[in-house]
Design goal:
The protein is α/β, with parallel strands linked by helices. The chain has 11 helices and 8 strands. It has a single domain, classed as TIM Barrel, CATH 3.20.20. The protein has an 8-stranded parallel β-barrel, surrounded by 8 helices. α6 links the parallel β4 and β5. The radius of gyration is 17 Å and the shape is globular.
Amino acid sequence: MSHQNPKLSGAKAVTVETLQEMKRAGQKIVCLTAYDASFGSILDEAGVDVVLVGDSLGNVIQGHDTTVPVTVDDMSYHTECVSRGVHRGLLVADMPFLSFATPDRAVDAAVCLMGGGGAAMVKLEGGEPVLEAVRVMSQHGVPVMGHLGLLPQSINQLGGYRMQGKSKAGAERLLRDARSLEEAGARALVLECVPADLAREITAALGIPTIGIGAGPDCDGQVLVLYDMLGITPGKKPRFVKDFMAGAGSVREAVAAFASQIRSGAWPERD
């Protein structure tokens, strides 16, 4: 079913291959999360390339302390809502906790998120343990985005939200996992809370695009949680977050400023 937006009728839709072309051309990829049709529409009109329906909705929408309680049904519902507002951007949906514990479960979840929710791509967290799920989904035509570094779904195991890959062994493991995900069929990769020099090394080593969050300025793109960049998330903010609503006259202006600063290289700043 088509949801044609007249404001974007002349805009070319972003596809997985578009992201690949942007990496090759050195064009920065702009990504933000969204959880409903209204914000999805605002992001789309601002030219955001990737609209991620993040399981961060567990924190900012549902009020949980972690993303672990989020279900596939939750993700499918919010993805379907966002899909009604997004007509140009690539719509990506997070696969929630343990929904990809086996290849069969991963395929079933992808059916819900893509067939029911309308996502064009799914994202899952982890390295070596998820490779077979990535491989099987890719073989079945599911575009997969990986996620390495800080893994919010594993926060109970990690023991806190902290930088990953700081040790030599940790950095080597992340680089190895990144290469393995690409070999398994992943088409893009989020790098969260890893040292900037490591993110730069991984980005250079891969043929697929990387999207950073708290990973320095040299990834192929950047993402933030929408509510963080609007300055409305309660509690302590991660150090890498910037409030783009400060000085903006509207949410649309804040989103436009976010996109502009990523594309120009003005943000994130180099340390």
